[in-house]
Amino acid sequence: MASCRPCRLFVYLYVLLSFVALLSTTTSAELVEDSSESASLIIDLISSAEQMKKRVKQADAVALDNWKKLQRRSEKWFLNLECPVVELLQSDLGIKGVKKLTEALKLGETLYIYAVNKERRKVVMEHIHVLAAQVRSTEYHQAMLTCSDNIFDQNSMSYMSVLRVLDNLRLKEYTVPYRELMKKVMPRMTKRLIHRGPWQRVIFADFYDQNHFPRPRILSPEALADQDESSLVIPNRLPASYLAKNLMKTYGLTHEIFAEYQYGYVEIENVYNDEDLSYLNAILPELVTHYSQVRLYTLVTSFPQPTNTNSKKHLKKLY
Per DSSP, what are the bridge partners of residue 313? Predict the structure, then answer.
């Protein structure tokens, strides 16, 4: 298998997907059915940032000014976010509370990194603390023990993702108590792994390792290598025409790739061979075109672009 090294675009696209997914929650915890306009805003923000990076060396004040306006707009939106996780877990609104918290914190992390100055960075961090404060409460972790299996399964991966984002922000005042309190949740986490699919188990295995929890047998390297791949997209070379009619399979495709690269948090080699890349090169542009035409931007923004640098074969540029 040829060597394969992902670029930072994986992190970038994952953050972008998180932005768009987060747009389904308002400050009053109401579900927004149509987030297309907001998703379009985020796409414009990212596009503007890329243009600014290219043009700022040429003193392009227009591109820089446009970026600053979009950045301020995104920051203003973030600073008005509320995410009462326990309330959402206990409600019948159908909103994944812990998942929304993960997305909110990830958005805050990105705004913090790309803040225009120290003052704005401080303001963003203050709201990150507001959102993160709830994870130190026993109620937050207890809610993961008392909710239904269905709600638990919908939030359990995000429950571990919250910790990862807080680690990235180096907020030990939250991560230390989080790791201690989550010990009571881990037995249920392990018990529910039997209901997880192949790519999900790969991600959970990484989480267990990163947080120093012993892997259960179901997550052993042997068990992961011996998983049934009949439900996966890439090994079965499902055609684009089929995926264009099967939304969940297409979402599954994006997660298969993200799982292999640990959502872009680390550089990993030897993931895809030339045949895999040829397949992805053929179907991804078609899928982007199709789902753009039907205005499903939440999916379009999640399509990754893995590359195989040694073989000089790359996935085509999608945007």
Answer: 308
